[in-house]
Design goal:
The protein is an alpha+beta fold. 47% of the residues lie in helices and 20% in strands. Strands 4-1-5 form a three-stranded antiparallel β-sheet. It has a two-stranded antiparallel sheet with strand order 2-3. Strand 6 and strand 7 form a beta hairpin.
Length: 133
Amino acid sequence: MKNSITISVEFYFKGEKLSPSMVIDLDEHIKEKKTAESFAPLLANSNNMDLYSYEYEMLLAEEFVFSNAQGLAKDFLENGRFDFEGFEQCLYNKNISETISNIAKSYLDIDDLSTQPKLESALLEAFKMGQQS
């Protein structure tokens, strides 16, 4: 399932109310190793704002509102705030679980790795050790 979220902000610039918004594909965002700090320039660029303008400074001065979360992102959205770091960690853990489950299925013919917690733990440790080396 695709993980996405809408980010928006409202502010006044030169007497005009501006409401830039955009949908962020969180899977792609994380794949490109972007952080939550890149939300502001993405929002500005997608709404044709110069990153070296007073308009952009006004955008930065306001609090972003998040909405319309899809996929796992739903669990990390509360009252217009999004826990990006928590979402990122959850997605990372989910991807590891899927990887080791696929290994168990391919090599050991195990359909549900959770029925064998010791093996699941061993595969998880082997995966983590592989990541460190």
